[in-house]
Design goal:
By secondary structure, the chain is α/β, with parallel strands linked by helices. It folds into two domains: 33-217, Rossmann fold, CATH 3.40.50.1980; 234-368, Nitrogenase molybdenum iron protein domain (Rossmann fold, 3-Layer(aba) Sandwich), CATH 3.40.50.1980. 33% of the residues lie in helices and 18% in strands. The chain is built from twelve helices and 16 strands. It has helices spanning 2-28, 100-108, 127-134, 149-155, 192-196, 199-205, 209-230, 257-264, 284-291, 307-313, 334-337, 342-353; strands spanning 33-34, 43-47, 52-57, 65-73, 86-90, 95-97, 115-118, 139-140, 159-161, 238-241, 248-252, 268-269, 279-283, 296-301, 324-328, 367-368. The strands form four sheets. The chain has a five-stranded mixed sheet, covered by helices on one side. α7 (209-230) packs parallel to α12 (342-353). The longest helix is centred in the first third of the chain and has 27 residues, at 2-28. It is globular and about 65 Å long.
């Protein structure tokens, strides 16, 4: 009996210990504060006392995550749970930036010092960064699709910020270096404000959360104000965008932020029926058939452009009589500024499509092509 009694006591004590441990675990279970995002569909940000957890939804496979990150302040000394995601020490101080879009954003947030290296220098229109590369203060990481492994190793960045592309195969050997790779999928949001809202994530990477939230609030307010003005018009001019290249014409699909922007500016985008969230390549013949009756034609082109040269290169274009408004991307910052400031482009487009509304554009990205 004595032996049985001892065993019985042991079992009871074991169960009590398990119960206590379970209760303690439950009492310490954390519940973070989810940041309320109004427009971004592929982004979730949850703040805890010692970290911020960020989940990026895969825009091509929405049931899965593209990336999961745990932002921890460099000075905190905390050890987040493994399931929280890839640990990123913030604020970033030596990052590899793959796109001029995000370079411009860091510059606006006054975080130039966080740029350690950049890709695609030939597409960077911002002189301060080009000079920093020339002086050796910022590393040239080469091509964004196949960045220089050697340069990245020498830089030893605290994070890399590339843009993902469907079926691209990732960054190859770079992904084996153990450097946090933060996929910048903001361009896959299907509304202009959805993409712009990603500034709140980037602000938290840079220790600039309040500044980023303030910028977005201003952007949102002005964009909604302009939409309200555009809704007053009773006419919707038919719009064609882009131009052919090597026999194909790549156009924004219905689910893209560009298509939404055109609608918000009071235009009838002629290819708003194309299914998808990005851009869709079509044959020049198919586009011209539908574009004959266009009222406006928007074109972004690097360097000088003339209608005569366009027709000489592609005779089919002679059938399109719509006036051309073009943006010279070699001298304007449309790619750098408008992703996180869509209100600037919206203002410009409303002024073009609906001069009767009296909107004066502060930023003139598109101008009439006169030659």
């Amino acid at each position: 009996m004595h032996k049985r009694y001892i065993i019985y006591i042991y079992i009871v004590l074991s169960l009590l210990m398990l119960s206590c441990n379970g209760a303690r675990t439950g009492s310490l279970a954390e519940k973070g504060d989810t940041l309320r995002l109004h427009y971004a569909r592929n982004l979730t940000i949850v703040t805890f006392s010692d970290r911020t957890e960020v989940t990026l939804r895969n825009p091509w496979d929405t049931l899965h995550a593209l990336g999961k990150y745990c932002l921890v302040e460099s000075s905190s000394g905390s050890f987040p749970p493994k399931q929280a995601g890839t640990v990123v020490h913030v604020p970033l101080r030596n990052a590899g930036i793959f796109s001029s879009v995000h370079l411009a954003l860091l510059h606006e947030l006054k975080a130039d010092s966080a740029v350690g290296g950049i890709c695609d220098l030939q597409f960077c229109n911002q002189q301060e960064f080009r000079e920093a590369v020339a002086d050796g203060r910022i590393a040239n990481l080469g091509n964004s699709v196949q960045p220089s492994l050697e340069q990245i190793i020498d830089l030893n960045p605290d994070a890399l910020l590339p843009s993902p592309f469907e079926n691209s195969g990732g960054l190859g050997r770079v992904e084996t270096l153990g450097i946090p790779i933060i996929w910048c999928a903001d361009y896959m949001e299907n509304t202009p404000l959805g993409r712009a809202e990603w500034i709140r994530f980037y602000g938290r990477l840079l220790g600039k959360a309040e500044e980023a939230d303030s910028i977005f609030s201003t952007v949102e307010s002005r964009y909604q104000e302009l939409c309200a003005v555009a809704r007053k018009t009773t006419t919707r001019p038919r719009l064609l965008s882009e131009m052919p290249w090597s026999g194909q014409w790549t156009l924004p699909a219905a689910g893209s932020s560009s298509s939404k922007l055109y609608a918000d500016a009071g235009a009838e985008y002629l290819f708003a029926h194309l299914k998808g969230n990005g851009s869709i390549p079509l044959s020049t013949e198919k586009v011209v058939d539908k574009a004959i009756n266009a009222d406006f034609w928007l074109i972004k082109h690097h360097g000088n452009l003339s209608r005569q040269q366009m027709i000489s290169d592609t005779p089919l274009l002679s059938g399109i009589k719509a006036p051309i408004w073009w943006c010279d991307t070699s001298v304007t910052l449309i790619y750098e500024e408008t992703p996180f400031h869509p209100e600037r482009l919206l203002e410009n487009l409303i002024a073009i499509f609906h001069p009767e509304l009296g909107i004066e554009a502060s930023y003139s990205y598109f101008k009439p092509l006169t030659n």
